[in-house]
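Hi F.,

I've been meaning to write this up properly since the lab meeting, where we talked about keeping a consistent format for the predictions we share between groups. The idea is simple: the sequence comes first, exactly as it goes in, then the C-alpha cells exactly as they come out, then a line or two of notes. No screenshots and no reformatting. I'm using this chain as the first example so we have something concrete to point to.
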Amino acid sequence: MLLKMRQVIVVFSLSLLFLTSCATQAPSRFEQAQQESSQRGSSAVVKESESGGSFNKFFPPSGGGYERVYTQEKKGFAEAKLKKDGKEVAVLAISDILNNPSAAKKFEKSSQKIKGYPAVSQGKTGTAVLVGDRFQVKVLSRDSSFSEGDRQTWLEKFDLNGLSKVQ
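Output, unedited:
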C-alpha cells in the first residue's frame, strides 16, 4: 500500500512538473514595454542630440522679480524653475527632438505663432514652440496665477533665433 501511494505521488509530481514547465509565462513588465515600443515602430537613437548644458544660454535671464534656477541638464534636454518671491510659478524647458520626430507632429496644424515659430497649447498649463523643426521650447505653469499669457511672454524671452542656428 505504501509503495502504491509513493507511485501515485511520484506520478502526480512529475505530471505537475511537466505541465508547469510547458506553460508560457507572461512577459515581465520590462519585456512587455520592449515589445510595445518595438511594435510602435520606434527606432534607436540615430543622431546625437545636443548636450543639455548647451541650451542654458538660450533661456531667459532672471529679472523683474523672477528668479531662474536650473534644475536638470541631460543629453537633449535642459530645464529651469521660474520662481517669484521664492515660490515656483513655472518650469521652462528646451528639448532636442531630433531623435523623436513624432514630437513635432502636434505643431503641424498650429495657427498660433510666437516670434514666428509655431506654437501650441498643451492642456491647461503648458505652452510650447517648435524651433527649427528640432527644438521644443516649453513653459509649464506650476501656479494658478501664472496664466497662458504669462507662458507666451516667457516663451518670447527665450533666444529662439539663437537656438534656431544650432546645427
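Notes:
The first strand starts at residue 66 and ends at 74.
The longest helix spans residues 2-22.

If this format works for you, I'll send the rest the same way.

G.
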